[in-house]
Specification:
The complex is a heterodimer. By secondary structure, chain A is mainly β. Chain A has strands spanning about 5, 10-15, 20-25, 30-40, 40-50, 55, 65, 75-80, 85-95, 100, 105-110. Chain B is mainly beta. Classes of the chains: A mainly beta, B mainly beta. The interface of A and B includes residues 40, 44 and 96 of A.
Chain lengths: ~110, ~110
């Protein structure tokens, strides 16, 4: 199993540009989540999904959209990038109330 | 809402010394607790977890943690650290009432010196 994969690993955007961060898992996990990690802030939940077609907001959802059309994929869309969205983004998956498995992360810089 | 407090942002120790990284959580209801480790420029790896049963939980790389319900704590310990343990450690709580989403502490950077 590849586990949780994320692409790209690095990305530089200009303010106002849009992009999609890709996330896929091959463990048939129901739950998938997106977190952002900023220095001294830990990981904060952006959006999550409890199954195909079902998504909900986390702690810091503004400026981000998600959809879940399949069990395997959970892309995160930045609609109009802002410097405040410079961060490291992690995707994770799990089976209900169990430990999360994390992807390797995407390091995003918005100039 | 749940919250997690990691009491030390940085912990410097010498190699082969014992270490304790402290974690407190806010809720007194049943929770599931986790410790993750993040090595530089990498993702998060599960160290250990408490779901139920024995309050002393053993994990990978010689780490262990003790769940204390009355003090709402889940401190991580290792009796003798190695240089390779240098990393950032995150405590997390999963609240069954909130779809099981993990709430993370802000992390503790462990720096092991020779």
């Amino acid at each position: 199993n590849a586990g949780v994969t994320q692409t790209p690993k690095f990305q530089v955007l200009k303010t106002g540009q849009s992009m999609t961060l890709q996330c896929a898992q091959d463990m048939n996990h129901e739950y998938m989540s997106w977190y952002r990690q900023d220095p001294g802030m830990g990981l904060r939940l952006i959006h999550y999904s409890v199954g195909a077609g079902i998504t909900d907001q986390g702690e810091v959802p503004n400026g981000y959209n998600v959809s879940r059309s399949t069990t395997e994929d959970f892309p995160l869309r930045l609609l109009s990038a802002a410097p405040s969205q410079t961060s490291v983004y992690f995707c994770a998956s799990r089976l209900r109330i169990r430990e999360q498995y994390f992807g390797p992360g995407t390091r995003l810089t918005v100039t | 809402a749940q919250s997690v407090t990691q009491l030390d942002s940085q912990v410097p120790v010498f190699e082969e010394a014992p270490v304790e990284l402290r974690c407190n959580y806010s809720s007194s209801v049943s929770v599931y607790l986790f410790w993750y480790v993040q090595y530089p420029n990498q993702g998060l790896q599960l160290l250990l977890k408490y779901l139920s049963g024995s309050t002393l939980v053993k994990g990978i790389n010689g780490f262990e943690a003790e769940f204390n319900k009355s003090q709402t704590s889940f401190h991580l310990r290792k009796p003798s650290v190695h240089i390779s343990d240098t990393a950032e450690y995150f405590c997390a709580v999963s609240d069954p009432g909130s779809q099981g989403n993990l709430i993370f502490g802000k992390g503790t950077k462990l720096s092991v010196k020779p």
